[in-house]
Amino acid sequence: MTEAGPALPAPVAATRSLKSRVVRAVLSLLVVGGIVMALAAFAYGRVAARASYDRLLLGAANEIAGAITISGGVPLVDLPTAAFQLLALAPDDRITYSVRSPGGQVITGQDTPLPETIRQAGGGFFDAEFTGLAAAERARFVTVPRRFAERDFSGTILVTVGQTLRARNAMALGLTRDALIVLGFAGVLLIVLGALVVESAMRPLVGLARDLAARDPYDLTPIDTPVPAEVAGMIGALNDFMRRLERQIASMRNLISDSAHQLRTPVAALRVQAELAAEETDPEIARATMVRIVRRSRSLGDLLDQMLSRALVIHRTAEARRVAVDLRDVALAVIETQDHALIAPGRDVALEIGAAPVMVLADDLSLTEAAKNLLANALRHGAGAVRMGAEIEDGAAVLWVRDAGPGPDAATLARIGARFERNAASRGRSAGLGLSIARAVAEAFGGRLELAPGPAGFRAALILPLSEETP
């Protein structure tokens, strides 16, 4: 049979890494920003290209208009080469022009479009279809006037020059492409920087994980590794969790220690008495031995009940939610269970509660277990009638059990409540375990256990902070 290897660590439900999240976020921003920047760059490029090429177009039209002369009452046009040299800066575009007389007839050039609004305004820029091409193509036109007032000729001659939009669109696309290239380089730089920043920020957490992995399994001391302020809250919560876990483990160790200590002697005695009874030939002696075995087994059963009660209290006081509890209800529930009739048949047990609620914030089951142990202690170790009650005393909530006996002497009273303290009159039963349970419950809810002899008898009481809440 092979020996089992070390247990593998439980899988952790991990989400995407912070680095991938940052990269995704930056990519998303770049995509959105790229779309916005591309649209903005294209719009700006179109405006810039239109302004630049409109100036060239206007310059060419003015050159042609300036070359018009009147000879014998007839306008003549000597086309200047400078006009077409300006437009030749956009070699892929098509160019058209026209010179119109005051009556609208074309003196020279092509029959270019001329909207009525431009004619009436005496000139201006406009967009129209470029005629004379195999496929329709949009073009930009400008019309400028040249006015004459001579004896043989008077009127306004309109010069229209048009150019297709290929160079303009190419310029707008070029500006957009350049902007996207810059954005791409900036995006790559941002992604790299973001990944480096996340890696640098995660380095303390990696060191923390390494320190925790190297810890002894039983080392629950607080984590003191330096971490960023954003993680300090998580580390504080983890330290608080480890403190609570350490308390729980300590309580469980105490419980195991208690169990071993408390059970060793009675179990050994029970075994010895059973062996003696099995070997005894005298019926009377065997019967007496069996009576002792029964008594011992009952005592052992009571001890086991107390130990289970202690285990329950350890768990409940650490895990149970605090709710509003009326101590009168706790006392009433303990009396109604009739456990006292089994512990001490025939003993007089009375309940004393008033009309006013006695409210505390606690766990009702833990309080019930503590009250049961106080009552059982009084029945086993006290004398006379036993009374149980709940009241408000000096601004605190009190759940008490009183018997008619004088109680233990001062020396014993100082030791009572230790887990293994035994009363000499208790026939071997532990008085300390029951009271330690009651003390643990009281302290868990911010109170204390008070043991006080008095003229009316010995009183054991849970003193708890009073609460104004109602159930």
What can you tell me about this protein's structure?
The two termini are 59 Å apart. Helices cover 54% and strands 19% of the residues. With 471 residues, it is of the alpha+beta class. Strand 11 (386-393) and strand 12 form a beta hairpin. The strands form 4 sheets. The chain has a 5-stranded antiparallel sheet with strand order 4-3-7-6-5. It has a 5-stranded mixed sheet with strand order 9-11-12-14-13.
Can you give keywords for this protein?
471 residues, alpha+beta, Beta-Lactamase, Heat Shock Protein 90, 3 domains, five-stranded antiparallel beta sheet, five-stranded mixed beta sheet, 14 strands, rod-shaped, disordered N terminus
Q: How are the secondary structure elements laid out?
A:
Blueprint: H1 18-66, E1 68-71, E2 74-77, H2 81-87, E3 95-100, E4 106-109, H3 116-121, E5 124-130, E6 137-149, E7 154-164, H4 166-214, H5 229-279, H6 283-319, E8 323-326, H7 327-336, H8 339-343, E9 349-353, E10 359-362, H9 364-381, E11 386-393, E12 396-403, H10 410-415, H11 431-444, E13 448-452, E14 458-465
Helix pairs in contact: 1-2, 1-4, 5-6, 6-9, 6-11, 7-9, 9-11
Helix and strand pattern:
HEEHEEHEEEHHHEHHEEHEEHHEE
Spans where pLDDT lies below 50 across 5 or more residues = 1-8, 419-430
Given helix and strand content, the structural type is alpha+beta
Number of domains: 3
CATH topology value of the largest domain: Heat Shock Protein 90
Shape: rod-shaped
